[in-house]
Amino acid sequence: MQLSGQQYQIQGLNVLDICQQFGTPLYVYDADVIIRQINNLKSAFNTVPLRIKFACKALTNISVLKLMQTQGIGIDAVSVAEARQALLAGFKPKDITFTSNGVDFSEIQEAVELGVSINVDNLPTLELFGKIFGNTVPCCIRLKPNIRAGGNAKIQVGHEHSKFGIPLAQLPDVHTLVTKYNIVINGLHIHTGSDILDPEAFIQGANVLFTVAKEFPDLAFIDFGGGFKVGYKKGDKTTNMPDLGEKLSAAFKEFCKDYGRELEMWFEPGKYLVSECGVLFVKANQVKQTPSITFVQVNSGLNHLIRPMMYDAYHEIVNVSNPAGELKTYDVVGYICETDTLGSDRQLNEVRADDVLALLNAGAYGFTMSSQYNARFRPAEVLVYKGEARLIRERETMEDILRNQILLDF
Ligand SMILES: *Cc1c(COP(=O)(O)O)cnc(C)c1O
């Protein structure tokens, strides 16, 4: 979204017109930004055989997935239903990875039947996998590199006490199972967390994988996970992709020489591809003056964007209806009956009732983490593609609230 004169625009369209047409609250995604991010990643790693697998839990709308598909990237799914959505969007099974985490084995069997590639993250599952599939279906294993990296304790998932991945100390057990059942390990995987700024954290993880990889002769790829840092606040530092690309590619080439074969380098970015593309537009219902704080009460809340309340995440907020208004200080709060703060102590251009506010960088983990809490409808979603705003999900209605409920006859 850019300010052009006195108007906020997405691909030249006035965002107020988009909100007028589709109503608020509304998620709007800019396809150009998604494509730009994909290309940034591709060009940072253009000297190695790169495969990008979009971690689609960040934004699963099937039209967004289809857009990703047209850009030649794959999908990292964390449930079979996500994998099925990707298939529906046009992905081939071979371009989808199912990164399971503590799932019932039937879900892995279902994924194998769909033909998607499998990532296993615990020993009991690896044993069952071996027993049932032997050497007929390869699998990747997720390791826990004992690295603490990431923006917030809740999104650090590679450290010693994290539930994710097989601890390095259990590698001997992995080998025992691999030998016993003849399992073909075609990849090694780590994902250390989200909002990782320091290229060193990736290099450190890579070095762990390079060492372990020498014990697995059948590898086709190494998967370095996701977690690149994006900017939420003005002036926030972000992962320096060209720098990371240069350092990691060099290390990877060195490793491949040692390994004796050229492997593929995989990444599974979520946020990096879709955070910046998305804006959540909400309407100011009232401006409520109190002796200490001026609240802007909006027609949305943690039911539509839970990141501020769940992760203390910061989303920049802009009054798109009054770009020239005098700057004043507000707390922007939602309508959910809980403490429901979207942003506190924010300088906004003066807010009046019915103004439209934009919550920026809301493309990742926005809609996908939304709920019907307080019996509120989930917002509609719009994709701006080639200068045209297209509806890609209808706003929910009362029918959606009642769907699957059963009224007993007492
Ligand atoms: C969530 C997740 C990602 C994406 O993380 P981002 O911080 O959004 O890049 C990648 N891989 C796995 C296994 C994940 O669970």
Automatic annotation (TrEMBL):
Give GO BP annotations, semicolon-separated: lysine biosynthetic process via diaminopimelate
Q: Which residues form the Orn/DAP/Arg decarboxylase 2 C-terminal domain?
A: 27-363
Cofactor entry? pyridoxal 5'-phosphate
Orn/DAP/Arg decarboxylase 2 N-terminal domain: which residues? Answer: 33-275
Listed binding positions for pyridoxal 5'-phosphate are: G227, Y365
Residue numbers of N6-(pyridoxal phosphate)lysine PTMs: K57
User: Which reaction(s) are listed as its catalytic activity?
Assistant: meso-2,6-diaminopimelate + H(+) = L-lysine + CO2
Q: Where is the active site?
A: C337
Q: Which GO terms describe its molecular function?
A: diaminopimelate decarboxylase activity; pyridoxal phosphate binding
The record ties this protein, via HAMAP family, to: LysA
**What quaternary arrangement does the UniProt entry report?**
Homodimer.
Instruction: Give the family from UniProt.
Output: Belongs to the Orn/Lys/Arg decarboxylase class-II family. LysA subfamily.
Biological role: Specifically catalyzes the decarboxylation of meso-diaminopimelate (meso-DAP) to L-lysine.
What name goes with this protein? Diaminopimelate decarboxylase
